[in-house]
User: Fold these one by one.
Assistant:
Number 1:
Amino acid sequence: MRTVAVDILTGFLGAGKTTLLRHVLTHGLQGKPVAVVMNEIGEIGIDGKVVTGLANVEKMVELSSGCICCSIDDYKFDLAIQEIVETAKPHLIVIESTGLADPEPLAYRVKSSGLGLDAVITLVDAANVERQLKETQVARAQIEGADFLVVNKVDLVGEGALERIEKRLARLNPRAERFRTVRGAIESDVLFATGVAAYRERARGSSDHLDADGISSFVYRSRRPLRQEPFERLLRRLPSDVVRAKGIVRFAGRDWHCLFNVTCGRHELTWIKLEGSAAPAENQGVFIGRALDRHRPEIEAALAACEAEDERRAEHG
Amino acid sequence: MADRHPQPSPAENEEPKPPTATDTAYTEEEEAEVHKRLEDLGYVE
């Protein structure tokens, strides 16, 4: 279960969630096996039909007749997740919520079910967000709970209005990374868990490779075990330009490996017991973000400072 | 009267045995599957 990542796709009614999902399922996600959980309030799922049958969609489950954040009970949710994991064996589960769902309780539910929460992606309807924020509480909750804010339908508003909207979004959620799109056609790999491997691959090719979205990456490797406390402190204090950081490390005095995942300032550690060929011989990580040529030396120095001098001293120190 | 200094049981005296193939959490096939998943999700290469 720990090796299945979950991305939550949320956004107000009509923001373009299914359109974006269809786009990334068609053009992105690196062809990895993906399962989609679609939550619609009505009895008949319309959106589900839009993504069923796409090449890398191993499984499509519709949770209808209730909102996934509040009215579908834990048992039904866990059952659906368990069925997906066992039958489709996906590497990534994308949960598309209803337009009225608050992502916070849903994120909590995902973590409680033992899955790794990768990111909360909120679609914002540029043409209607001001009115939605005025009329509803949930529009605000969706923006505040996001790791990534995708401002969609930017072609329907002028540049001045767009700047005003982005300023407001930044005030509501200064932590989130923002993108602009038209009809959900986002070209960045950074949003979904399966895109991280692409940045790792690019970092191997050229250390200063910069994507069209201005985001670059570098890879960290070391053979010594790390001290957990300073490592966690490092993750908490990463510069805000670091959009994602992800990898596997071994801490001194611990038998299990630790998977770390940082998404826009929110970090999670999960533990995994690895043996044989599954266990990497070294710590590995990838750091993804903007202006990394400036931040890299500082991050690498901080990582080196986390290395335990020897395992026994770290255990008793 | 209870013995205040009980002898350690034989099990406590024994050296821990190195793990055998049957003690490992995964079969070779499962190890490869886990590695592939970690690779796909960007944790390792």
Note: Confidence is low (pLDDT under 50) at residues 1-23 of chain B.
Number 2:
Amino acid sequence: MTAFDETQLSDRTLDGNAIGGQLREVFGTEMTAAVGTCASCGATAQLAETLVYLNAMGTVVRCRTCTAILLVVIKRGEVNCVDLQGLSALTTEAG
Amino acid sequence: MAGTAVRGRLTWQVATVESLRPETASVRTIDLAVPGWAGHQAGQHLDIRLTADDGYVAERSYSIASAPGEPVMVTVERLEDGEVSPYLTEELRAGDEIEVRGPIGGYFVWDGNEAEPPVLLVAGGSGVVPFRSILRHRAAIGSAVPFRLLYSARSLPDVIYRAELDHPGDGVEVIYTLTRQQPSGWTGHSGRVTPALLGEAAWPVSRRPLAFVCGPTAFVETVAAALVDFGYPPERIKTERYGGTGATG
């Protein structure tokens, strides 16, 4: 385990609004109002409401309910490497 | 909301700084000329990208301060340890060019289509920026939706857009609370936003209000939790966290 627990809510914790541009870059459409389902706990939330951590490695998006990782984006040059394994569903058909 | 999603590739483009003006000692508003700007919704963002001489790139997301239909404007707070905001608030000059992309976001927006329910805006520090866009949009479309803005600032000189907010127009009530320093004779609220103060400012749940909360992370958590305690449905509370004590950057 690491000494630094980023899931402790702090001033460094942002939310999905802060990565709207990056999400649109990855998905090609507006995603902050899209609804994701956490693969760990089943909670659903609009991506704007998720916990977001920006660090030197990339962007980590966590579930606000259980803090499991939903989505990771790491940029290498002009290529975005995206890990979506923490999401069991993701839809832009928000109500 | 699906119908409001803007499809298409988001590309960086060059914007020219038209003018700059100080809002407070650490906050400045930047008017931008963005060729071919597609137009934005009230509450949306703009990304700004700076590239250093050595190729190092830093990007930050800022709320757009102007209403839909107005020229693009951002208001930036200087963060002491920021990479981007010190440049934007101190170095940038009229005529300079910066890279931007946007508009961005579809969650923290108010389009004025909901006619009846009153709206509560709760701002901490520079969290007031998207609310300027929303309030100006409300005025521009002639909306009669009742609005209340509860705005927490350190002191009166730290209040952003004060001249504008002191005359908010019919149907809009602006309530300040000053957390650190109050002028002599101050009759407004003092101290942080507490559940008691929020209880005074918040619309009754029976009116199905819509709430927008924007500010530092801890501020937003406190306010949103109190609104849920009052019985506001979570889906009627839109939140935006800036991190730190101000804007993200």
Note: Confidence is low (pLDDT under 50) at residues 1-6, 245-249 of chain B.
